[in-house]
Amino acid sequence: MSSKTKVFITGATGYIGASVLERLQNHPDASNLEITALIRSAEKGEGFKKFGVNVVVGSFTDAQLLEDLTADADIVFDTVDADALEATRIMLRGFKKKFQATGKAPIFIHTTGTGVLADDAAGLKASDVIWDDANPDQIEQLPLAAPHRDVDLEIVQADEEGYVRAYLIAPATIYGIASGKFVDAGLSNKHSIQVPALVSASLDRGQAGMVGKGLNIWPNVHIDEGTADPEKVGHGRNGFYFGLNGEHTLYDVGKELGRTLVAVGKSSSEEPTTFTKEEIDKYFNGSSYLGSNSRGLANHSKAIGWKPKKTTKDFLASIRPEVEELLRTKHKTAALR
Description:
By secondary structure, the chain is α/β, with parallel strands linked by helices. The chain is built from 13 helices and 14 strands. It has helices spanning 15-26, 42-49, 63-71, 85-102, 136-139, 149-161, 181-184, 194-205, 250-263, 277-284, 299-303, 312-317, 319-328; strands at residues 5-10, 33-39, 54-57, 75-78, 107-111, 131-132, 165-171, 173-175, 209-210, 217-222, 240-243, 247-249, 273-274, 296-297. Helix 2 (42-49) links the parallel strand 2 (33-39) and strand 3. It is globular.
């Protein structure tokens, strides 16, 4: 019987998941970890095996497989979809089974997002509402209909019932082209969602775009800025941790994108213009999400030793490399969800 800590990770082929997996393998205690990843593609699964990852081929749609893998793990990193409510419930059943068999609550580290803080500003105004991850009373005032909120609440409830220790990591606008062995091997996604989607749309229309007037504010965080040890920090109701270290307006992004498009010969104007309704439908599935406000303080994250270095200046500087890379790959990005 293995004495190693069993780690199960979902989303290893994704932008966040691959970064988490590589950090797990580089952790000082990596030799004591037995890491299993759920991979949809058998071909990619073989690639991950070459890097010493235990692979199970399957997806969230296989309820029994997902429950069994969760029940077998001591720690689960869930990085697939912050809105996958049914999959979350399946995983929680697995955690309960594990707890009933061992009497020890397993650890659940779930990636949610600061989209849970978003409003309906549609780019027309900034908000002075700032949410603090160190203030659970304030977090509990978030609307039930907020993005990701239904999933977050299910997880917090499970923690309160005592059969799992849950930590909800809420990154902001994550930026930077991902790097590392999984990216280099073609096994994982190197792009985030928000900025690449904006870049791709702007390239297609020939001018930088924004929702409304671009007055809304979002925080940002670089993909390579890490986290702390879950064994030493609050969980459940006290387990929200924002990943953010700077703020930007959508206009700031549009302006920098406009300058870049002119510099690379893809636009004649540096000034961003408002996306039409037709463009919102075409590029963003009809969603004005990019025009929302999402403002927060990472006091809880920083209180446990998280020390991000990169700022909004770095965020804006990342736009040109993103444009150049997407031009190289014909700016094919996943649809903004």
